[in-house]
Amino acid sequence: MDLGLAGRVAVVTAASKGLGRASAEALAAEGAKVVLNARSADLLEEVAAGMDDALVVPGDISDPDLPAQLVQTAVDRWGRIDVVVGNNGGPPSGRAFEVDDEQFLAAVDGNMLSSVRLARAAVPHMQAAQWGRICFITSVAVRQPIPDLALSNAARAGLWAWTKTAAADLEHDGITVNLACPGLHATDRMVERGVTGRAGDPADFGKVVAFLCSEPAGFVSGIAMGVDGAAVPGLL
Question: For a designed S-S bond to 99, which of 56, 103, 111, 219 qualifies (C-beta 3.0 to 4.6 A apart)?
Answer without folding.
Answer: 103
